Amino acid sequence: MEDSLRLQSFDQLPSAAQFASQIESRNVPAVFVGCVKDWKAVSKWNPSNGGLGYLEERVGSFMVEAMLSQTAPVFYGDLRSHERVPLPFSTFIAFCKWHRQNVGNSCSINSNSQGHQLEESDTEQGCSPFVDAAPKQIYLAQIPIINAENEERVQLETLQEDIQLPAILEEKNLSSINLWMNIAQARSSAHYDPHHNLLCIITGRKQVVLWPPSASPMLYPMPIYGEASNHSSVALENPDFSIHPRAQCSMEYSQKVTLQAGDALFIPEGWFHQVDSDELTIAVNYWWRSSIMSSLADHMDAYHLRRILRRLTDREMDQVLLKGSTPTWRQESNVDHSLDQAGQSKDLKRKEQEQHSLLLHELRPCALQALHELVALVHDRVNASDQNQPVSSDSTNGLMCSKTNEQDKTLTTEIFHLEEDPVAKNLWILEPGIFKDIFVAMAHNFPRTLEALVLHLLSPVGAEVLTRKFDEIDQQNTEENRNKFYQIFYGVFDNQFAAMDAILNGKESFARQVIGSMEI
């Protein structure tokens, strides 16, 4: 877990301005210890203080929509795993009373839980006098106290008198305030919310495991087109790592916090969270739209989507290349680097003046060795593709390359992983100056080898590496020197546009493959 994503803890609520500028804007979770302990609800709703009777008296038999799950004590967000059933609030309270009398305090969170294991409850199923379902299968989840988006859904408005709007939310445009109440020990599946969330514990205890949005690939979110796209598809009670292998590493990206009665937790939008609740835990949460989401205009959605996909693609391409090989630049080993650095500017100027006439004997030993290896790789790849093609010398210096038929386009390889392509792997470890010298030397001495490499052997990952090396050269050279280099490089080809197409098509193919493999 990066330090910048670490959960913050505060002993008191900051001001609304401090919260907005120092906490909410960072989009990192924060816990506020004891910040709602003075609410009336904390004392009046407590089952140990007659809170169940109080709640029954306040709400009565008002109909609420309860979650009934066949996978309890785990509650999944997917509609296939649960159903929403209308239930008089008084009936739910009767469940709570029955459970408290018959089970006592035998259920509690396993504080050593690693996010994928849950202790078995001692509650026996099928012994409720009210319905066929066991009490632990029923959960009041997201029951509206206030709902700005749909006032008709408000079911528990009468409870608003017992809670107070936290000072940090006074200037927020709230979407809803909701009640969460479970009878027996319960766990919600890992999911994220599309709103900022302030979770306030009234009674009981909750343990929350948090993952940043960047850990999404480890949690395998449901398909974006699905009804539960914000939920992880990893089974919590019995994860199958053969189906979800990355989930084995998910806890490395997580952090855990235990919330007691009176505490509150800020969960930013997009953060995955899995919540374990002790029996008879009651909580209230506040949802509000983030400033980023509030400022998004509908007509800009397609643009923002493209920008985000581009950012994700660039980041994933970086990861693919870094996984394949550590980009340790290949340099001359027996050189006094202090003298080498002192002479770099003079050497660069000389290269700019003499680049067009660079000969093999002028190459540094490490560059000459890398050139020999690169030409040999091209030679071997061409020969492996067609053993029947004649091999002829590409120059008088003895480095050989297959002469390829101009119409034969079958040699191009569809390789997307750096470790699978020796040509791309060799280019990746070259320092920009050596890379430039090698290709200038190839253009002058082995033009057909360079032509075969670009037009027939350049894999998608090879094209990506090649263009990245071009970028490094561009950053280290003057405009005049850059132009000379590209004139020499592309001057080898009878059709310069065909060479550019081969490089750009390979680069785009690599990006398409990365996009297709991304887990979002």
UniProtKB/TrEMBL annotation:
<dbReference type="InterPro" id="IPR003347">
    <property type="entry name" value="JmjC_dom"/>
</dbReference>
<dbReference type="Pfam" id="PF13621">
    <property type="entry name" value="Cupin_8"/>
</dbReference>
<feature type="region of interest" description="Disordered">
    <location>
        <begin position="329"/>
        <end position="350"/>
    </location>
</feature>
<comment type="similarity">
    <text>Belongs to the JARID1 histone demethylase family.</text>
</comment>
<protein>
    <recommendedName>
        <fullName>JmjC domain-containing protein</fullName>
    </recommendedName>
</protein>
<feature type="domain" description="JmjC">
    <location>
        <begin position="154"/>
        <end position="303"/>
    </location>
</feature>
<dbReference type="InterPro" id="IPR041667">
    <property type="entry name" value="Cupin_8"/>
</dbReference>
